[in-house]
Amino acid sequence: MTILLQPPAPAAAVAALAVGNSLAAGLPATSTIAVARVMATAPGAVDWRDEALCAQTDPEAFYPEKGASPRDAKKVCDRCPVQAACLEYALTTDQRYGIWGGRTPAQRRALKPATATSGPEV
Question: What are phi and psi of 103, to 5 degrees?
Answer without folding.
Answer: -120, 145
